[in-house]
Amino acid sequence: MAELNQNQIRAQLRxxxxxxxxxxxxAQRAALYxxxxxxxMKQLEKTAVIRAARKQIARALTILRERELAAIxxxx
Length: 76
Fold this sequence. Notes:
Blueprint: H1 6-15, H2 18-40, H3 48-75
C-alpha cells in the first residue's frame, strides 16, 4: 500500500463517522500492542510503525474531541 501523506490521512479520518473512529482507535491500539510485543522479541523490522500507530490514535482521538466540543457549542 502506498504511503499516504498527513493531509490525506486527516481527510480520511474526518470522513469517518464517530463509530468508525472509535473502531479505528481500538484497532490501532490492538496493532500498537502487537508492534510492542514484536519489538520486545526483536521481530519487528521497522520500529517506525510504533510511532505511526501512536500518531494515528492521537489523530482519531483529536477528531472525536473536536466533534464533541462542537456538539457542546451547538447545544448552547
